[in-house]
């Protein structure tokens, strides 16, 4: 049967159906406290996980079985739970806690739109592929622009162009375009790479404007390493940028994120982050929105970054959500948090 919430814990079950099983382990985010090993009662394996402070829980089972030359482990979805989600790392089963609901804009009327591929040539060895979504009926007209790092994943897994289409249809946001940047060399580009930052903030917006004229100031969006990059792009001395929206930003800091110290670009990231933390006065204040899962590893460095940006004079909002480091969490936080940033930055353009 699917997982069930019982008082203060979630009960998981796996029915082996008479098959020979050596062990069953819950595979979920390490930030979730509690045991992982199932206990066996006849053919049924069971685990009681203390109820986490989450609205939804993504998971899989690691099932170990005997084979001819020993044992073999297989990672599977929960066969008794029909609720699944596609993630950047494959499919996951999902337990939705009481009260969880998908965002209403996913099922709301939406304006039609079209996609235009292009490439941004700059200081990076490879061009940056960008696909621009535009609402129909505004061809050739100047519109506000939202630039999204990890754009294809944000669209496929967090429905960001559907979000824009629905918010335009409802009148909550003005007609605007969404530039979806493709992460060709993600770790290298999204780790404080000066050449990538200058390519986007320098020629990037100009190149986009040649095909899709821009009105007002750009808002840069990203999550995880893309969230770090969104902030670093925004902090460059470029007047075209008015806002940043970062979700679970990887603001790695030497004192808070030792678990990430083995990452190839940790040193570069932590130096860039420290430079931002040490800034006492913003030369060009931005509207900055940050969201992060309250239980995830990045929560500490996100709290630190939000406080530092506010001290420096930026207009900052920070929200912690009852989810973890995944695209569904980022999707669910777009409204109201991204809506508020876009409204504030584009108020003049809308008027």
TrEMBL record:
PANTHER family: ENTEROCHELIN ESTERASE-RELATED, IRON(III) ENTEROBACTIN ESTERASE. This is Esterase. InterPro entries: AB_hydrolase_fold, Esterase-like, Mycobacterial_A85_antigen. Pfam families: Esterase. It comes from the Bacteria.
